[in-house]
Amino acid sequence: xxxxxxxxxxxxxxxxxxxxxxxxxxxxxxxxxxxxxxxxxxxxxxxxxxxxxxxxxxxxxxxxxxxxxxxxxxxxxxxxxxxxxxxxxxxxxxxxxxxxxxxxxxxxxxxxxxxxxxxxxxxxxxxxxxxxxxxxxxxxxxxxxxxxxxxxxxxxxxxxxxxxxxxxxxxxxxxxxxxxxxxxxxxxxxxxxxxxxxxxxxxxxxxxxxxxxxxxxxxxxxxxxxxxxxxxxxxxxxxxxxxxxxxxxxxxxxxxxxxxxxxxxxxxxxxxxxxxxxxxxxxxxxxxxxxxxxxxxxxxxxxxxxxxxxxxxxxxxxxxxxxxxxxxxxxxxxxxxxxxxxxxxxxxxxxxxxxxxxxxxxxxxxxxxxxxxxxxxxxxxxxxxxxxxxxxxxxxxxxxxxxxxxxxxxxxxxxxxxxxxxxxxxxxxxxxxxxxxxxxxxxxxxxxxxxxxxxxxxxxxxxxxxxxxxxxxxxxxxxxxxxxxxxxxxxxxxxxxxxxxxxxxxxxxxxxxxxxxxxxxxxxxxxxxxxxxxxxxxxxxxxxxxxxxxxxxxxxxxxxxxxxxxxxxxxxxxxxxxxxxxxxxxxxxxxxxxxxxxxxxxxxxxxxxxxxxxxxxxxxxxxxxxxxxxxxxxxxxxxxxxxxxxxxxxxxxxx
Length: 655
Known about the structure:
Distance between the termini: 83 Å
Helix content: 40-55%
Strand order of the largest sheet: 19-18-15-10-11-12-13-14-9-20
Number of domains: 3
Largest sheet: 10 strands, mixed
Oligomer: single chain
Shape: globular
Strand content: 5-15%
């Protein structure tokens, strides 16, 4: 017994010292727990016991043991069920695809941004032809549920992953594990990320950290789940994995959004600047989006439209036209040609002539050309080509429009149709007039599948004016962005009221339409002031300073190309060092904040690098390694060349 006491004391002391140094937020939680117990604010539920040569957890209130007095059997079963096979307990961080030789050859010749296959088909085709080895290595591993952690050391020793995610919702139980497993020792060979007693929002951030760290290891992620652990975090992880931005909005589209703005500066569009401030306007804004709630409450909108500045997303215009709602501001985000369908549904485009148009600068030319003139204003989306322009980025036009109103410093904002959820009675995702409207089956749980279904699966979440509503992974990404960031952007004088029947948005107060009574104002006068403010706080062209920055971006792009071209395979070859070198070369953390090209290349590497890495770790042929390296770097350079040509074209015009 003396030896056991010495072991648990050493484990606990080692763990506390390690956690205090490397995981300060977790250390703070443990300290708060200890203080709560000492002060009598929390009564411990469990007792750590040592019986029959094994640790166990006894819960006096239920008279139950966590391991039923047979922890050794649990450890043995856990170990036996742990392997590198891909037929169970595995997440796939990629979209399944295959390409034959003819397809790969065709796309290799294409040097444009029309398809992501121009930069990926050749690589995937080569790997599929050459790969012979079965999977033998696990780069990332997740433990859903710790218990006493007795299974963690043997599994980690067997698989030797580079990165662990350890998830436990019960802080008291995790604290007991500090006596039984030595996390400090595990961390000597494996990096650890902890998710202990975290909210959904905290877990989402932890998941992002886990996925973004050594993202070339994300091809297959194995996991172990304690039977006693709630499945919620497992489902949330899957949801976050399948909603990664580089899978929803592919790298070639990212490249297009960074290249399109360059020509629009030459077209002299009004780009809105950060100097604008419309907080002095004493009229509330009503943002109308295309969620089902707009259709439910359209009569209220018609009755009260003159009491608000009506802001409408482009996909809602045809419906509002049919209902004789006069729109004051139109917003548009979608960069794809298909978004023109929203405007084609309008009977008379002239119905919206007087409205101000606040569009993303990446909008298709056909859309922008519909509304040329003083009523058209554009915003940079992600790019930073004008030093003082407002830069906005969000997953959908509804959340982007709200972000825009916050950036303009609108004082009072009402939301309707920003449901980001399905109609709880019909399962509809949008108003009937929306070009992508669907009716889906409502499910409480997330249906995990190797096929990534962003817009078709459903899951239960907290509702705005209802206790529970159902959303899709596609909508959930916008909810996450709003809940995580918008409260940090919103200023104290700004107030947001959510009239929708969809998802609960933490930045907005749930409000019923009969609870508001806006003061009537002279709408025409307010709109004239708004337009005047937009005109006086917009710039149509790049300044000398902006152009000088473009030259720097061009030089940076060329230096990246030179670095990738001149790289020589190292001997002995280390796949992890190779991949990390390429990623650091094209998308280092410091460059991601400065250069659009680095963000394009980071998305590209997130999409394709794990395919390459998976092949390299299982490939013993030096010749195959060299061939794949050549193909991989060729496609990186092809992407860089497209961006270089776009920069050179705009700089030649301005000279």
